[in-house]
Design brief:
This protein has 5 helices and 16 strands. It starts with 7 loop residues before the first strand and ends in a 14-residue tail after the last helix. β3 and β4 form a beta hairpin. The strands form 2 sheets. The chain has an 8-stranded mixed beta sheet with strand order 2-3-4-1-13-16-15-14. It is of the alpha+beta class and 316 residues long.
């Protein structure tokens, strides 16, 4: 059975301080907080989603902020670096913006592209690259214009403990196409315009340690619910053990761990983040699944207050 994902749906990470997380991804990077909810498996912890104006697939980074979590170590079996894409000509703007916030960065070239590389407040590895593909992000926050704003994911760099096995999944299960190899990385391409370029280490690396400052999982796109069921059958027939389909309110999900140690999810594009909030007010209210509504008062009492706020770099 031949199936092809359009690319990354979302990436989910562990962090510690929730307000620091909001300040970085909304205040510094200018992303929209499109959903404020809880970890459905641990309701004492927020689950925050940031993306473009609609939280479109291919733009969504999500976080479990837990102040008592231990520090993780980035390594094999994880997404090593999350790649963001901006319009051509915008890199100079981001050099200046990161500098204004005293965020150190380096620059590198990979597959003939220039990357700005930096860490978020918890040590997650991020990079920004210019590309034509992908719609502009019309969400305007912190003075970032659409011609400079992050459009979404350019892709990701996967760190595998068994590169040959991870590559086999990218090719034979997810349907990505190999498009290059250089500098210790092999590049794969999916069919979408965002979240479509995936680099994986050619040689295996030692396993990382989960915890704050690491990625929990990477999710790949399924077009609709019907295709999602086909994906589950496809993953199972490929020798893996996917979870049952789980309703995550804003998408349906299945999970499986590939043999290079990385936790993969396949998530549906629908129904999206306007499923329980008006599009004009995404992320403004704590949204709970129905089975937690009776516990809303207790849940809200135990969660720290957060505020999306524009940041003044002169007052950092």
């Amino acid at each position: 059975m031949t199936m092809k994902t359009a690319g990354i749906h979302h990436i989910t990470c562990f962090v510690k301080d929730v307000q620091r997380n909001v300040d970085f991804y909304a205040g510094v990077l200018g992303l929209r907080l499109v959903k404020k909810t809880i970890n459905f498996d641990a309701p004492e912890v927020y689950h925050l989603y940031f993306g473009n104006e609609k939280g479109s697939p291919g733009t969504i980074i999500t976080f479990f902020p837990y102040e008592f979590s231990h520090k993780g170590r980035i390594g094999g079996g994880q997404v090593g670096t999350t790649t963001y894409v901006v319009p051509p000509g915008a890199l100079e703007y981001w050099r200046a913006r990161l500098s204004a916030f005293d965020i150190s960065f380096t620059e590198s070239t990979r597959f003939s592209e220039t990357y700005i590389e930096f860490l978020d407040a918890d040590g997650l590895q991020l990079e920004i690259v210019e590309r034509e593909d992908g719609d502009l992000n019309t969400w305007s926050f912190g003075g970032i214009r659409a011609d400079k704003a992050i459009k979404g994911f350019g892709g990701a760099v996967l760190y595998s403990t068994a590169s040959v096995d991870t590559i086999k999944v990218l090719e034979d299960v997810l349907g990505l196409e190999k498009v290059g190899q250089e500098g210790g990385f092999i590049r794969y391409k999916a069919e979408g315009e965002l979240g479509n370029l995936i680099d994986v280490n050619a040689e295996p690396m030692d396993a990382g340690i989960p915890g704050a400052g690491t990625v929990h999982h990477i999710a790949w796109r399924a077009r609709d619910f019907e295709e999602h069921e086909a994906w589950r059958s496809h993953v199972e027939s490929s020798g893996f053990h996917p979870t049952p389909v789980i309703n995550r309110q804003y998408f349906h999900a299945i999970y499986f761990r590939e043999h290079g140690g990385i936790l993969f999810e396949i998530a549906t594009d629908p129904p999206g983040f306007a499923n329980d909030e008006h599009e004009d007010h995404l992320g403004e209210t704590l949204m709970l699944p129905l089975w937690f509504e009776n516990s809303r008062a207790e849940i809200e009492k135990n969660l720290p207050p957060i505020q999306v706020q524009e940041l003044d770099p002169s007052k950092k």
